[in-house]
Amino acid sequence: MTSGPGSPLSTRLVALDFLRGLALTLVLVDHVDDLIESQEFFTRWTLKGLGFSDAAEAFVFLSGFTFGWVYSRRLERDGFGAVQRRALIRTVQIYAAMMLTTLLASGLSWWLSRTMRLPLTITTPTMFRETIQEAALLREPVWGLGILVVYLAVLPFLPALLWLARRNAMAALGVSLAVYAGSQLDPAMNLGDAGFNPLAWQVLVVGGMVLGQRARGGWTFRPGRTVIVVAGLVLAMGALVMRGEGLAAIDFVRQQLAGMPAYSKTNLGVIRIGHFTAVAVVTVAVVRRWPGIAGHWLARPLVWSGRHSLTLFCVGVLLAYVSVVAVRFLPDSIVSLLFLAADAVVVQFAVAWWLEWRASRIRGSDRTGG
User: Fold this and answer.
1) Would residue 230 count as lying in a domain?
2) Over 204-251, what HEC string results?
3) What's residue 349's pLDDT?
C-alpha cells in the first residue's frame, strides 16, 4: 500500500493534520476568550458553547489516532522495543515542553501579578518555587497545561496497548473501558487535581489509537445516513441546550447538567463522550463529502499546525497569557477580543510556517547528504 503524494494514505494523513490543527486553533481562541473575562464570543460559538464537549476532546482523540496510525506500521517493522523507546522519548519531550512553558508563564506572572490579574498569581520567590515544584510533580500544572498530564500518564503504556490491539482490538478497548468505568465509579480513581483525570481521558486516547491502527490497515469508517442524522440531532440538541437562553425548560436542563458527574470535564463524563462521538461522525461525513478541504491552499496553516501540535499548543498557552496583558492597553469591547484572538492565531500560523519551513530544509539536507 503506497503512501506517496496523492495516494489514499497521503491524503488521509493530510486530513488528519488538518483536523488536529483545527482543534488546536479552537483550543487557542477558547483560551484567549477564557482569560479575557469581560468579553465573551468564542466560548459561545465554538464547540465549547454549542454542545456538551469542546475542542479538548477532539485534540486528545486525534492524538491517539495519530499514534495508532504512525506506530502500528513501526511496530510491525521495528518491533515493540523500538516503539516503546520512541514513546518514552516523546513523553520526555512533552514533559520538557510543559516545564519550559511553566517557567515562562510563571516568570511572566511573577513579573506582572502585582499590577494586574493573571490566571496564575505569583508575588514572592517562594510562590514561584512552589509553582514550579507542583507542576514538576504533576500535582498542579499551571493554567492551560493540565491536558498534557494526560499524555504524560498514558503515552508510556500506549505501545503495549497497541501491541494488544494488533492482536485483538476489543481486548485493548476492554482494558481502556474498564479503567474508564473505574474512574467514574470509584472516587479513589478520580485523579482530577490537574484538571483532567488521566484515568478517564485515556479512553479517548486509546479509542483513537485503535481506530488509527485499523485505518492504517485499510479500514474506513463510512457512517450511514441514519447514523449521520442521529449525530446531527445530538449536535442540534446540544446547541439548543447551551444557547437556548430565556427558555425556562432549557435553563432548567442546563442547570441540572452543570452538577452532573456525567457532564464533568475533569472526569470526562459519558455525556461529553456521547456528544464528541456525534461531532466525530459529522466531521467524518463532511470530510468524506468534501475531501479536498484539507488539501486546499487556504488550509495549509492548519495542516502545518497539526504537524507541530506540541510546540504550537505550548505557544498558544503563552499567547493566552500575553493576551491578558495586551487587553489592558485596549478598549474594553468585543472588538478587542476579536483583535487579540486574531493576532494569536496569526502568530500560531507564523510559527507553524517557520517550523514547517525548517523541517523541509532538514529533510532536503538529509536527501542531499548535506
Assistant:
1) yes
2) HHHHHHHHHHHHHCCCCCCCCHHHHHHHHHHHHHHHHHHHCCCCHHHH
3) 97
Residue 46 lies in a domain: yes
Cα Rg for the chain, rounded, in angstroms? Answer: 21
pLDDT digits (tens, 9 = 90+) for 262-312: 999 999 999 999 999 999 999 999 999 998 899 899 999 999 999 999 999
Q: How far apart are CA 297 and CA 303, in angstroms?
A: 10
C-alpha cell at 129: 518555587
* Grid cell locating 63: 492524538
Name the burial class of residue 75, with classes exposed (0-12), middle (13-18) and buried (19+) by CB atoms within 10 angstroms of its CB.
buried
Residue 269 lies in a domain: yes
Which structural domain range is residue 203 located in?
8-368
pLDDT, the chain, mean = 90
Looking at the structure of the chain, the number of domains it has is 1
| Cβ neighbours for 243, distance < 8 A, ≥ 6 positions apart | 44, 49, 50
127 phi and psi, to 5 degrees? -65, -40
Please answer whether residues 221 and 284 qualify as being in contact, where contact means their C-beta atoms are separated by less than 8 angstroms.
yes
> Is position 204 within any domain?
yes
Give the global pTM: 0.92
CB of 66 closer than 8 Å to CB of 20: yes
If you average pLDDT over residues 97-103, what whole number do you get?
97
The 10 Å Cβ neighbour count of residue 1 is: 9
Please give the pLDDT value at position 369: 60
Nearest CA-CA partner of 350 in 292, 296, 301, 283: 301
Percent of the chain residues past pLDDT 90, beyond the cut? 70
Q: What is the rounded distance in angstroms from the CA atom of residue 30 to the CA atom of residue 50?
A: 13
From first CA to last CA, the distance across the chain in angstroms is 30
